[in-house]
Amino acid sequence: MTRIVVDAMGSDDHPTPDIEGSLSAAREYGVEIVLVGDEALINPVLTTRQTSGISIRVVHAPEMLTMEDKGEELALKARHKDANNSMAIGIDLVKKGEADAFVTAGNTGAAMLTALFRLGRMRGVDRPALAPSFPTATGSSVVIDIGANPDCKPENLLQFAIMGSVYAEKVRGVKLPKVGLVSNGEEEGKGNELVRSTTPLLKKSELNYYGNVEGKEVIGGVVDVAVTDGFTGNIILKTSEAVAKLIVDNIRTAIKSGGPLALLGGALVRPALGKVKRLLDPGEYGAAPLLGVNGLVFIGHGRSDAFAIKNAIRVARDAVDSGLLSALKLAIEENLKSQNPKTDGGNNLL
Question: What pTM, to 2 d.p., does this model score?
Fold first, then answer.
């Protein structure tokens, strides 16, 4: 049975959404859930829920990491061997082999730092990256990176492309994923120095490289994996979310203020609007994997409700069942060998 650790102190409204989503996932997906967090907050919620017939247990973690934790203080809490916060204890369960994946809706920076310190990087990966799935005109596309690495080198983007391609194939079920490089123009030679320097690396790789893609191609579903630095990726993410919210809010306002006929029309189109809302809801995609660390870690929105937590667990389960971690390591090792063909690969570190 796949074992998923859930940070019960992760979401903004913890622990209720985290617990309810975990219970739903345990019933629907048949996974074992390990809730990590303050027992004094978790147990009162659990006792009011139906838990018979599912595998769920609680591991006590008296502390939690919040948005207030920054700088040296955060680094200390993330890396100290005796750390008592829910992220550290939960990720340690994965490191020790007592669980297969870790899911949190907590502080993204804290989760990334804790995972990096406690799990370490995969050999051949300079920087782990976040890779959420974006809704597109043809389904969804993996965008990597969306905030973990604001400043990147061409070699970083090549590693992102490799990891994003493996994730799209193994977890999203895409055969020979098309990989695009986010730029301000489709033509080769467009873009900043980072984009232009990355292009020959991607062309030389064994990836199914499509070429440059603008934002409209990403949303249009032209590629399955869109590669960019974390600065640009985070702007794409935040802008997309803001535009989606603006569209939905304006439609609601127009219907409510449009009089009886608009209200009647709104009632008729409500099912269609519901589909649009689900398409734009980050909770539908659950959580983004942190690719490049020596373990499976998934980070969701702080605003995650029970539905989003359930979907985050589903994505984590799919990653475990597909053998994502082993596939990532193999792909990165192959990249190392291609860069150092005259060596045996035993001591080559990027």
Answer: 0.89
